[in-house]
Amino acid sequence: MNRDALDFMSDEELACEAAAQPYALHILIRRYQNTVHAVANSLAQNSADAEDFAEEGLWGLVGAATSFSPEKNISFKTFATVCIQNRIRSAYAKKCRTDGVQPVSLDEASEESLISDQASPELLYLQKERISELYERMRAVLSELEQEIFSLYLSGYSYAEIAKRRGISEKSVDNAILRGKRKLRAVWSRSAESE
Which of 26, 35, 36, 108 is the most buried (most CB within 10 A)? Predict the structure, then answer.
């Protein structure tokens, strides 16, 4: 299937193609990045938190794309939004526990904050280019093991399930995920600095 055909697919169709067509996932990320950033910004106290929460939100979106099931009669938009919110909520709650702060409910955030103005075609083009570049960098920095473990992790497998499937210890799974996150964070921060 060519890229032009993917551009005109529904979100549900793209989610079904995401495993076989990396560009389908690219399109979904482009379509949902404003939602990810809106949710992340609604809970962030500073730009570093916003970046961390947005990163977690993107992982939630990737997880939604890889685990979406059209048979469940739910729109991908609803499913993805819940996955994004849950992933960011978890990161937010963990940060609050670490900082000793009482968390604020995401439900209290204005629904209007999730709806952003339409971006200009120029901005959309630049964002598309940035996402493509990030994908290339991700492929370049993650080892084959890290890519596989991330794929399983984002598909909803627990550390124990991943360890069993790979025949390694849970600690090795945790280490691979931490190494991968560290590498990806470095890629994303270098990308942000270059803007």
Answer: 36
